[in-house]
What does this fold into?
Amino acid sequence: MRISKLRTTTVAVPYRVDEAWAFGRRSGQVSVLLEMQTDEGVVGLGEAAAYPSADVVNAVFRTLEPLVVGEDPLAIERMIHRIDLVGTWHHVRASSPAIAAVEMACWDVLGKVCGQPLVNLLGGRFRDRVEYFYYVARVSPAEVAAEGRRATEAGFGTCYLKAVHDDPAADVERVAALRDGAGPHARIRVDANEAWSPGTAVRTVRAMQPYGLELVEQPVSGRNLAEMAYVRGRVDTPLLANEASWTRHDQLAVIRAGAADAISVDNQADGGLLNLKRSAGLCEAAGLPVVKHSLGELGVALAAATHVIAATPTFRYANQAYGALLSDDVTAGFGGPAAAYRDGCLDVPTGPGLGVELDPDKVARYAELYRCGADRFAFTDRDSATAPALPKA
Ligand SMILES: [Mg+2]
It folds into this structure.
C-alpha cells in the first residue's frame, strides 16, 4: 500500500463562548482536516490544530507531501523518521501539528486495514471511557459560578479555569465563585499560562488554596524550571507543567528539575500518537502522572487521543478537551459539545482505526465559515497586543 495524496480542508467551528486566557482570546476552533488517500482506496483521517496559524499548518502539509506520497502508510516509525531527518523538521516546533496529523492518518489506515480500533493496536483497553474536564471560559465571578453549576449538573467532575487578570486577587475571587457554583465535590484546576512571577505564584496559590484546588497549571514561565521548582517547594497544591513540557525532551528536563507533580503531554505538540505513548512511559518511569493537553481540537483529533489514553494507565486526571466551548463538530457522532459527554467521559470508539467519520455537510459548512471569516477565529487577539510582557513581582 502507498500513500497517493494528502487532501486538506481548513474548517472553523464557533465556540459557544469565547476562550480567554492571560494573553489572548479566540472565538472558535480552527482545524485543518486531513484525508490521506492510498492507492488501495483506504482513506486515513487526521486533524491538525491551526497552531500557530492555519497558514503555517497548511504550508507544512505542502512541504511534507513530497516526503510522504509514495510511502507505505503502515511503516509509521520510518515515515516519521524520514520527515524528521530527511525533511529536517526535527528542530522546528511549529511543524508538529501537521506532522502529528499525518501520523494520525497512518494509524487510521492501519486500524482500517486490520479491522481493529486503534486502542487495540496501542496496548488494548486499560479503561473503557476517558474522562475530560469542563472548560469554564468565563471572566466575571457571577458567570464563572453559573458555568460551574452547569458543569456539575452535566456530570463533569473537573472544572478548568484560566487566570485572566493582571490582578491575581481578581482571579482568587473567580476561583471562590467557581467553588460556590460547582459545589464542594468538584475538582478545580487553575491554569496561569505562565502569567505569574514566582513570588506572585506562591502568594496567589496560597490564597486560592482554601477553595480546594486539584492542580495549578504552569504558574510561572515554562522556560525557567528552577523557578517552577521554587514555587513547587512553597505551596501544598500540586503543580502541572504545560508550557514547560511541550516535547519529550522538555518533559525529561522538567522531571530532572523536580519542577512539577504532573505533566501535560500532547500528541499535536510533539509529532504524533506514538510520542504521546512515549511521553506517558517517560513520566511513568519518573513516577509522575500525565494529562493530555489540548491546543483545541475537533472529533478526529479527540478520538485519536482518546484511543491512546484508553490504552495507557498513567492518565490519572481528567484530560483537556473543548466540549464545554464547542457549538458543534465535523464528525458524525463523536465529541462535539458538552452534551455528548456522559459524566464528563467519552466512550472509546469501537470502529476500525480512529472509529470516526467526517460529516460531509458539516465539513462543507465550517470550511465555508473559515473562508468567510478566518480573521474572526484566529488565535491572536489584536486587542491583547498591550498585554504585559512580563509578570509583576
Ligand atoms: Mg495550559
Observations:
- The longest strand covers residues 3-21.
